[in-house]
Amino acid sequence: MCVIPNGSSINITGCANGWYSAVYKGFDGFVNSAYVVVRKETISRSGSRVDRSSLKTGEQVVEFAKEYLGYKYTYGGSSPKTGFDCSGFTTYVYKNFGYTLNRTAAGQTQNGIEVAWEELLPGDLLIFSNSRQTYGHVGIYIGDGYFIHSVQTGTPVSITSLWGSNYGKRLKVARRIIY
Q1: All CATH 3.90.1720.10 domain ranges in the chain, comma separated
Q2: Which class in CATH covers the domain with range 54-176?
Q3: Is 2 a catalytic residue?
């Protein structure tokens, strides 16, 4: 058994069921994913390391999205001025961070990488079925079982419980845009 001090770097060698297999100072072991912040080393085109503190994170995406709580729902809308529909909202939020998403909930199933529900992180897209069992709604996971989304006509951009609502039954896929 080995204790890994907070803030230490480890070499992750695998991931399954919420646990990372890792190597730390020559010791092989497992670490619960709740205690790990995964960071890929980023190298610029010139070959120098990039300061990761300047890179955007899922938490920053969530904080930006929260600035639009209460903005009206408008079918086909994709800006604060006109209002947002669900995919217009996610597209607008991610565009602020330099990411281009497909414009529909169904299209956003092709953006980023798929993640397991037990691996959700703030900023992940949550894509839901509609009454026809197709991809019909999308929101942004904010953590602790909640997500932010532009809901429907008459309901503004809101935060909703994922598992304490009908949305949990309708969740079809989660996608990570920032990885």
Answers
A1: 54-176
A2: alpha beta
A3: no
